Amino acid sequence: MKGIQEKIAPIADLEVHQRIGKLDGSGLRFGLVVARFNDQLTDVLAREALRALEACGVKSNQIELVRVPGAYEVPVVIEKMAAGGKFDALIALGVVVEGETQHAQMIIETTGASFLETACRHDIAVINEIVGARTWEQAEVRCLAGQSSRGWYAGLAAVETAQVLRLVG
Question: Is the pLDDT of residue 11 over 80?
Fold first, then answer.
């Protein structure tokens, strides 16, 4: 990989018009849908997403948070919120830990496909942080509090992607 990196100039050096979303959430509206299943971890994801949004200038009255039973229920609520047209970005939060069957993999694959379809159909940022992990310990690491949390990433990604959609729209 190092050889390729030496031969390719950083994209910022390209002489083309580039549009980059800013981490400024003022004036944007956000919806979060959070699965209650594995709430010891999904609560941390939600808290960190909210902290990231706040760090980007988003006020509490610009955010709507909805709780659902599990990760499999998140897509239908994301779809309904997207169809309503009052949000600039949506964040899906959940935790799925693999067991002895293929159930976890099915949930991860179908929810991810659903979010992509919703995003394209409604022209809205849908940030998918249904965290999949093989073990509880792996899930804990991905959901930790702080700026390494997938929740924190989701908040930042929602703001930046919403801004990019405004720029290119």
Answer: no
105: which DSSP letter?
A: H
Active site residues: 103
User: How much is the pTM?
Assistant: 0.89
Query: Which of 80, 72, 55 shows the shortest CA–CA distance to 64?
Result: 80
Q: Does domain 21-168 have CATH number 3.40.50.970?
A: no
Phi-psi region of 85 (alpha: psi -120 to 50; beta: other; left: phi over 0): left
Nearest CA to 48 among 165, 146, 137, 160?
Answer: 146
Q: For 113-116, which contacts have Cβ atoms below 8 Å and span 24 or more sequence positions?
A: 114/75, 114/78, 114/79, 115/75, 115/78
78, 122 in Cβ contact below 8 A? no
Residue 44, Cβ neighbours under 10 Å: how many? 22
